[in-house]
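Worked problem 6 (solution included).
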Amino acid sequence: MRYLNPLALLLVIVGGVNWLLVGLARIDLVAAITGDSFGRTNLLSSLIYVVVGLAALALVPTLARWLSGGNRAA
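Solution. The predicted structure is:
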């Protein structure tokens, strides 16, 4: 559990960078890594998107604690 939040944060940052590149340069890193063209998905790219989405959901309690002024070291 100690490494869950840092790993989730890293995955969410990678996802955010991917969306930044999509918005600015129409480059989809996930598609490039998995050998697909922009906007297309395959099993591997879908798995990557699901893992990044789950990482974002895993960080929701951390955000809630942060917003409520709770323990920041969680």
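Discussion: DSSP finds four helices and no strands in the chain.
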